[in-house]
Task: structure prediction
Amino acid sequence: MQSLLGAEAEAFTAALAAEPVRGIRMNALATPVLGAEALPFDTQQLGNFAPHGVELLDGDAQIGKHPFHHAGLYYSQDPAAMAVGYLVDPQPGELVLDLCAAPGGKATHLAMLMQGKGTLIANEIIPKRAKFLVENLERCGVTNAIVTSVEPDKLADHFGAVFDRVLVDAPCSGEGMLRKMGAVEWSDTIVAACAQRQTNILATAADLVRPGGRLVYSTCTFSPEEDEQQIEQFLVDFPEFSLVAPPAHPEFDAGHPEWGETANPDLAKTVRLWPHRMRGEGHFIAILQNNAVGNAPRLRTQNRQKLPTKTEDLLAPFVGDNQQLIRERVRQFRDILYLDTDHQLDTEGLYVVRKGLQLGKVGRSHFQPLHALAVAKPALYAGARLSLALDDPQLDQYLRGQDLTEIKLPNGWVQVCVADYPLGWAKKVGNRLKNHYPKGRRLIGS
Result:
């Protein structure tokens, strides 16, 4: 970077030697929206392009163990990474694809900006990582996401150019994470391999963007081979796309045409985020518009199948005034009921990890609600609730998976909350509230 940054190289090196910045993005899907002032951590507003972002000043704070984190009221995210979601700028009601979505920081951000309306497909080709993606989407209360685990070309073959927005947060050499990760395996060979992989992903992504739609490419690396040169070649290979200049902001450095092979001046419309110019790590972002003329292919949707009356009756006590929504969009797959997204897409033939919002399992004479229904934002459940204060010792017991006693509620399912924000399920049986908080998400240790 010394030869590329010139006079700024010293400041850049000094920034990498400083303590990494910790960011928190407040989840605007929560109702009411929790303000950063309610967090029991020392924070300050970022004052940048991320209105929902704050900087955590206490480096020792264990924010992942706090009940508000379990309730999905915030997401730990680097401030620079927050810029990506805002530049994708998804609109409520749109069809959006996050092509490389795990672990879910940007996917949960996109869903938040979509306000739960429309459809977000969050794809992750590695099944184990897709599991973490599902957990983060559920924790944040996302109701309009489909999680797939397929190669990008299978999505292109299945859907075609139908998406309003496609995000490629590409696998990269990770130079921008040097400060945060401490050490990143790096070599010219790794950079070259990443660049080739990015070229392949971008080529497929281009086939998924509808005419007039947008493709956003981002990395967390400083490497020109993976950034300016990647976009430079993409514009040659796909001349129907053009770069869109981002909104002006003091922390947005322009991309560098001189770092490309042909010095295409349009590369100045890309965005560079540097750790010595902002409170955050490194990122590169490019906004690409599909200028092709014509209509998008017909969207593949599935016909709705009416639920059996018995199933509707079993579900009714859980959804209260949401009966119409349930009649219109609830589907059944084997014994699982799920709330379909607005577009009601046909995903037959794709490996779908999670289709819409999982509501629960249907038995012969009972309905067992699943965790996603408990924490959906906005809330769909309209039954019994137990709200615990932050200083209530029973709250810690619940998050550790312990049963609660001395609870004066009728027998049946109970939505357990912290300060009125949903956390999960418990079931009142006799004088005991049996804990149904998911085992993999419980607090352990001190």
Remarks:
- The first strand starts at residue 22 and ends at 26.
- Residues 22-76 form a domain with the Alpha-Beta Plaits fold (CATH 3.30.70.1170).
